[in-house]
Amino acid sequence: MLTLIEGAQIHSPAPLGQQDLLVTDGRIAWMGKGLTVPADWPLTRVDAGGRYLVPGLVDPLAHITGGGGEGGFGFRTPELSAREALAAGVTTLVAALGTDSLTRSPAQVLGKVREFRAAGVSAFMYTGSYHLPVKTLTGTVESDIMLIPEVLGVGEVAISDHRSSAPTHDELARLASEARVAGLLSGKSGVSFFHLGDGRGALAPLRALRDGTDIPLRQLYPTHCNRNPWLFAEAIEWGRAGGWVDLTTSSFPDLLDDGERLAADALVALLAAGVPVDRISFSSDANASLPRFDGEGRLIELRCGQIGSLWQEVVAACGKGVALETALAVVTANPARALGLASKGTLGVGQDADLLLIDPDRFAIERVMSGGRWRT
């Protein structure tokens, strides 16, 4: 079956003007104007009517098996469904474990990832969790990355957080090196994805890896960089030096009162400070626990991350004067590049047909295509 989307304003994420786009076999087969199609072709035509056609969103962090538990078993957050992800425009995501790697496991994450794939979401995962030693599927980080197609790297490893396992420099260096080499041997990113907490150490553990090892900077992918003022200040310098800066889109008023920045506001500030746009990404932290602790580390409250926040913060960024091309890049091309997913995050011939039709007046997601099939 062929699908011809006609009269769309294409953003790849760069604006390409009004064009038509042909989809076949799950990929973009042609882009341009005036395609002549034989009458006997099995073709479905879709009139975009000037709507924006943009890449499906790429989310570097989603807790699809749920998270939480910092206040006890009654505080566990629920699983995410593929239907929820697709409705939010997310066609590609990477799943992770968080604080709890005992009652939740990498095997559960892998099973859920494959459930998402069966439903049309290009789902991947990190091996491991917050803690070291790393919980794996096959016994080592290297073999997980090399032998399991869905495993892209290791994460979400916690640093500068009282919930971490207080990893040493040598432990982090060895972990990132193992992931890096396994990525090289398997043709994957082999990225090390780091959870940053509210500890005063902030990015110091990653700076030590940058300055004291031969690990390429692009292998180190820190998230939650907008969670407090001191971490954000360090993230500006980290980004200026060429490091990845991932901003969490899920937030709540109480967290903002504690010093967190909305991802849209943080994006504006990073760009104003001279951080290259191609170093910045957004992630939803969907279905993670978003806890607040008092000064002695006692839980005050806990909320659940929302996958819909990813697109909401894109819209918010545009409302603050960020160009659509830039706002789209941080949820499409940039995370796809960080994760080594070359066929994701952009619209072009040969790319995966993961597409969103957007109402240009309301900036609302109207239709979602993944793998060449309409899902919503």
UniProtKB/TrEMBL annotation:
Alphabetical GO CC annotations of the entry are: cytoplasm
Give the free-text PTM comment from the record.
Carboxylation allows a single lysine to coordinate two zinc ions.
InterPro entries referenced in this protein's UniProt entry, alphabetically: Amidohydro-rel, Metal-dep_hydrolase_composite, Metal_Hydrolase, Metallo-dep_Hydrolases_sf, Pept_M38_dipep
Binding-site positions, substrate: G68, G69, E70, T99, Y130, R163, R227, S289
Q: Which GO terms describe its molecular function?
A: beta-aspartyl-peptidase activity; hydrolase activity, acting on carbon-nitrogen (but not peptide) bonds; metal ion binding; metallopeptidase activity
The answer, when asked if Transcription is one of the entry's keywords, is no
The active site consists of: D285 (proton acceptor)
* Cofactor dependence: Zn(2+)
Would you identify the family this protein belongs to, as annotated? Belongs to the peptidase M38 family.
Gene encoding the protein: iadA
**What superkingdom heads the lineage?**
Bacteria
Q: Where does Zn(2+) 1 bind?
A: H63, D285
Which positions bind Zn(2+) 2?
H195, H224
Return the protein name: Isoaspartyl dipeptidase
Q: List the keywords (alphabetical).
A: Hydrolase, Metal-binding, Metalloprotease, Protease, Zinc
Q: Where is the Amidohydrolase-related domain?
A: 266-374
Q: How is the cofactor bound?
A: Binds 2 Zn(2+) ions per subunit.
Give the EC number(s) under which this enzyme is classified: 3.4.19.-
Lineage, uppermost ranks: Bacteria, Pseudomonadati, Pseudomonadota, Gammaproteobacteria, Aeromonadales
